[in-house]
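Hey all, quick one. A colleague (J.T.) asked me to put the zinc ion job into the tracker so the inputs and the structure tokens live in one place instead of scattered across chat threads. No bug as far as I know, just bookkeeping. Sequence used:
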Amino acid sequence: MNINSAFEDYLKDRKMFYTQVRKVILRAVEKSSPCFMMEDILAYAEKHGMNLAKSTVYRNLKLMCAVGIIELKYCDGKCIFQRKSLDVPTYYISCHGCSREQNIKDPDLQQFILRWCRARGYATDGLVVKIDVVGKCRNSHREEEK
Ligand SMILES: [Zn+2]
């Protein structure tokens, strides 16, 4: 999953706008080191000609936490943000005949499930972590019929 589309989808679902300010903050998050502080975002924005209020940046970083792009951690009383990996997780389908396992890795599947949940009013934190499908593969199925 792509950070941009994850954030954009989240905002769209809540009828919020993907404003220039939000784009700059997201860009700053992408360009920052995996662990960063709000000041890093402010500095990045300033370097790109935007003077942002701390409250604006903080509010948007909290939004990104809700999307699952970053995580808020406290360290020595300071707010530290950590970028999360948005790699597509692997889902498994296993056969209870021969116990062979197959992987399903499909970003569309993940998006489909998230859309399905949101459409029914579930607030998701942006990632589908686990799906296990159990069944019988073609070979095990055939053996049974013999
Ligand atoms: Zn099997």
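Adding what we noticed when we looked at it: Residues 95, 97-98, 100, 136-137, 139-140 surround zinc ion (CB under 6 Å). The longest helix spans residues 54-67.
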